[in-house]
What we know:
Layout: H1 3-14, H2 21-32, H3 51-67, H4 71-77, E1 90-93, H5 107-118, H6 123-137, H7 142-159, E2 162-168, E3 171-176, H8 188-199, E4 205-211, E5 214-222, H9 227-234, H10 240-247
Parallel strand pairs: 1-2
Antiparallel strand pairs: 2-3, 3-5, 4-5
Helix pairs in contact: 1-2, 7-9
Amino acid sequence: MTTDARKRIEALEQFTALGSGFNIAMKDLEIRGAGDLLGGEQSGFINEIGFETYQKILAEAIDELKETEFKELYDEVEGHKEKVFVKETQIDSDFQLQFPDDYINNITERLNLYTELNQVKNEEGLQKFEAQLIDRFGELPSQAEDLLNSVRIKWIANSIGLERVVMKKGKLIGYFIADQQSEFYQSAAFTKVLQFVQSHPQQCKMKEKQTRNGLRLLLVFEGVISVEKALEALALFEFRKSVESIID
């Protein structure tokens, strides 16, 4: 029996009262993942996507227009701003990055907190979020600490051009931007990554891998046996000063 199947059986055992269908559905949503509501991995039909989802789709459409039809216009207007090459970094891990059931036992509350965490954009906000968790639910379990650190990992990875980060089997593998024609590969950010890799060959390596979607450039760290180690690894880049207080 798979882990997800066992969780579903436990949910059926827990919610047996008349009218518990909503709680079972919420638990199933949590098991399958609430973050991919419109993707192929999320089953079911959504009649009303909600205002927040609409805003996200609209923002993505606007960003795409900025990169295509109105690129020259926005280059003039935003020429002084640092260009953002990666909109969202995906984290794939065999570590438990979650709020455990025995830490926050209400399903709806957990989903709300995941949503709130997804909206945190900086270290100050993350520390405030953590303080609120401790105040409401007590000291963080290791899974919750790893979850918060995974957000920090995502920020760093996002800033150095990693579209995906895999933390499995004692390794951290970062996938750089798939589009080989992206301006990122001529940017100062990528140059700094190259310089670091070249000067620290014992700590990380850069490799190429053939995937279904073409050749991908990878950043590889060995000996990543914990989320904290993963954070330390990525913090070695230009973000050392801003992250060193987290990992000390």
